[in-house]
Structures
1.
Amino acid sequence: MEPCLDDVLRWDYLNGALRGGDRALFEEHLGACPACRREIDELRKTAAAVAGLTPPAVPAAWTAAAKDRLRAKALAAAVVPSGPVLARRRTNVFQYAAIAAGVTGGLALLFGLVMGNPVRSWLPDLSAALGIPGPSAARTARFVVWILSLHALLLVPSIIDNVYRLVTRGGRK
Amino acid sequence: MDTDRLVEDHKKLVYHVIHRTVRDRAAHEEIFQEVFLNVLESLPRFEGRSKLSTWIASIAVHTCYKFVQKARERERVGSFADWLEGRPEPGVPPDVQESLEKGDLKRRLEWHLAKLPRKHALPVTLFYLEGMSYREIAEILEIPLGTVKSHLFRGLKELRKSIEGGGDGTLLG
């Protein structure tokens, strides 16, 4: 037989959650429908029987074993960092080193471009040692700046990649 | 983290979930421990959006699902929703048979409850024996709130039918 009323409505009535006009309409229907009245009455008894159930106790040995395993696991995690943690720390060191190198190279490039002339006054004369002919200090400064610039340019993709990784990892935490 | 307290506070809930969803009783202890290990492992990711007990029940349900899926416990297991449709207890286990003969009313009611499909048995257990709200049950079973009420209503109805069909009408007075 098809039910007269919908499950959620009947459930709400059974649990006293149906109020006002809905409740009045439901009770009006119950007055006229012996099948629904009987069903509600039977389900009320079923619910009372289930609510009175005493579930089987958890075996003490299970609880003790679970506590032991959890304690051991928590202790192991606290004392020895696991493999992935070490690997992550190592990765972070490389990432920070790459960023530091990139920033240094960038600053050197900037310094070389902006402070081109003053460099001459204090830069040691490396031109002879490196075999660079001509006015020594200026050429040496230009040479150093070029090397550092190249260094910085080579690091750009790596810096972008590492900064992206750091940002996205931080966002997931 | 006080792991002893974690087990102590939630052992009954975890036991209930396993009891209602996994047929293989010999595996219950192993699953019980696995649930708590999974909880400990996932704890750093617990964001506190729900109650800890709701979150733990959800882990317990999924651990049971994965276990049954892996063991294939004589039943075909597809998606999580398909698994919830299944019944964990098709036959009468020997210990229950004994209690049926001895007239242990509560044990018999337990057995009728165990015969329900998981989608009905779990909400009934969580609602009546664990005192969980509709919202919590909805979150654990990943179903809408109205469906929780409908499953609860149908669960009671099916339980009533099983009790009457098994000649246990006296259980309900």
2.
Amino acid sequence: MHLVAQIRMALLSHFRRRRASVHLDDEIRDHLERQIAENITAGMSLDEARLVALRQFGNPALIREQTRSTWTGAWLDSLLGDLRYVSRTLIHSAGFTSMTVLIIALGVGANVALFTLVHRVLLNPLPYRDPGQLVSIYEHDASGSNTHGYLPVAAGSFFEWQRASRGVAEMAMVSPFQAYNVSSEGGKLPEKIEAGMCSWNFFSILGVNPTLGRTFGPSDDTPGSEATVILSAAFWHRRYASDPSIIGKKVWLDAKPYTVIGVMPESFVYTGAFGGNTDQVWTPIGHEFPPSLMTTFEDHEVIVVARLLYGTTLQALVSRLAAVQKQIKTAHPGPAVRDSVIGRTMLDDAVQDYKTPLYALLAATGCVLLIASMNVASLLVARLSARRKELAIRVALGGGWVRIMRERILESLLLSTVGGAVGLLLAGAAIQWLVKTREDMNRVEAIHIGAVEIGFAILAIIATALFSGLISAFSSNLKDVLSGLQDSSRTLSSSRARAGLRRTLLVLEVSLTVVLLVGAGLLLKSYQRLRSTDLGVPIDNVLTMHFGLPEARYKTSVQRIAFFENVLSQVRALPGVQSAGLVSAAPGQGYGGDDLVTVVEHPPLPKGTGLDLQNRGADPGYFAAIQIPLVRGRIFTSDERLQRANVVVISQKAADLCFPGEDPIGKRIKVSIDGRVGEVVGVVGDTRWNIAQPAMPMMYWPVLSGDWSNMTLIVRSPSNVSALAMPIQKIIGSLDPDLPVSGVRTIRESIAKSTIDSQFDSLLVLAFAVIALVLAATGLYGVLTYLVTQRTSELGIRIALGARREQLLGTLLLDGLRPALLGMLVGLAASAGAARLIASMLYETKPLDPAVFVAVTALLLIVAASACILPAWRASRLDPMQALRME
Amino acid sequence: MGKPSDLVQGTLDLLILKTLLLEPMHGWAIAKRIQQLSGEVLQVQQGSLYPALHRLEQQGWIKAKWAESETGRQAKFYALTAAGRSQLEKETANWNRLSAAINLVVSEA
């Protein structure tokens, strides 16, 4: 309260100030007149009397200043005065001001935007009750070679774990990567939605309550119970127009009726390493999974979420469960049973993939802000030296040094505040754009600018202001400024020193720029590599779309085959369709499942091991349609269907893995989990399931066996394949009006989608690097121009004495380039270290990629040389007469 | 420059308050009175009086009023307030203690 009272006083007296000043003048004059009168009475002449009176009194101007400074709120007064003065000089030099504000706005804006991301995505707790106690538990292959350490869990293991952790942790499971077909109803189109199947206690363990209705109870989570479903707020708003009476109503999922028992709040989202943030509904897993899937240790379909009870640590829980899993492995030595357990906090689970890229980007923006403030400092120093005479006069007239220092700080504070405010607006726009373009990112819904972000912006502004203000304030000292009065342009020492400071800043600036350029170069190269990777098939003009036949309606194999063949024959007859085929998962569109197999003809493998092959179903026309080359043997025929579909086609890698050094044709492979046996009839080329991952060994089974229900239709056309999307959807709609079609896109689009991370990171870092390069170039240009101006008369003398202009040009150019070269060396060394930190973001690109380093060096040299050439050339063309006359 | 270096630090306030105890005065008169009362020993640099006067006024120990002076011109008269009186007592006591202590040390030597 004391401070408030003081400020109120200060403001009040600020307005009485003018009158009080007049009164003070009167008072001092009165005093002097009395003294003069007394002196005259004592016998002095008028002039002498005045002189003596003044001597006795002291400097009236100073006394006035000192007196005024005792008044309440004097600080405010002088601050306002300074502010007025500083803003007037800033407005006066509009070019300088707008340039500086722009630089700071870019620096602060980029930082606030990235900080917002890091804070909201990586650091902000998840929106659950007591989220610090929540952990995600996965199976782990301690002895295997799987690179991804966190593997989904088999439901059978979950129940064992749950039993073993009683009193230590509460556990729920969720299978977040499920999907349903929602039937058309009341004029709404059928659609395919993503769904999570979870144990009944999933929501209570997370500690979230529904906005409507209730969550699952134990009785919902059994095979025999009535089918129930909980809707997400988004799905409820979109498809059911937020109908408040939805509870108790039926919705049709996969052609079966489900009773809606609850609606989750808007804020609820489950986000894990295996997805879930796009789930629209949740169903009880015990009702949805067949009983065999609930007891198996071999089929890994769920993620386990646990709430640690008081006094338990994640580590303790994991080691307890690892022991349990080891026992399971001993008791069930099947090849697909895993032998260990691994866990991490739920927050880490959600954001692990974004950690390195986001921190790398934040570091990049930090560099940009640092470069920006160095540039601002450099500009301020340059401006200060242009104003040296003015400052010298002020100091000579009694202007306080502290006051001049304060002005410097105030100046940079003003610039930073305006720049920062603009930057905050930029950051807001950037965040909005980002949230729109990166809907795929986990936790993107949580990103917004809040109080913490604004606090960060204020800190960034203050840091920028202090950094640039202090550098400019300390760049010249009192003596230096006073010498400005005697200074003619022929004395160089002081200006040299000031340029020295700017040079040091430049070295730093250039080295940070090099780090950013190298980072951007590596990421771009990695992105380029990624985009030009061969998927294994030609990717142009291929359209894909998914559909899944619900079991309730397509009960038999014959029904499913009939539907597939109907679709294929009608689509193939469509004008513009070159070829069409069916596959369970198209190249570049996802993992699509794998199975462990053994070769029947080979001696049995050690217990608990098998050969891991990716699993696909395909129709006989698929290989020709997608243009996977046949290496040897043949593709299965349309006659090999139903019971006769005991044939399999394998990829080259699968052949190498299962049949090293022998002919696979005619041999048989056996799938461990269901005992299915197929004769290998052909070997085809490899394809990648994800553009960024190496191709895996793969096997193709005939879809005409009728065992498959989820299909991707692929269509190749000579040109403009996207135009076929509508007619094909119409064909499917005419065959089954309740069957939703999803994922309609070209292979090229799906590759773009899986490279968006890489594209995003590389383009952002590139943008920052370009900003840095421009700033560094202007810095180089500015310093050299300044040096040349300072040395005009010296250069004039040299030319007059016969110095060769080319030689002069060379000297000057070298002078300007020296900080650039030094900075480049420092920067290259620093990049070598920094590049290792982003190694995990690089695809087929070494952190020390020589091409990138060479290119960056060349680019920097060219830019630095062009920034220096103009001032150097201008100086070498000086007219000596003019230069010497110029003072 | 500008500081009453020939006065013991911090005693200027005491002197002003003491001077004003008799009657309201303007600045010049205060300076004169201090000079006279001290037997011309304490030479107040006249200018330095004003920052002190204004500070005391801000603290509420003295109050100022513009009034006609003996010469017929308007002058700013300072007068002691109640708060100033008690402040004077406090500072006098302080001073007495301090000077007695110094005396002790000096005469002991």
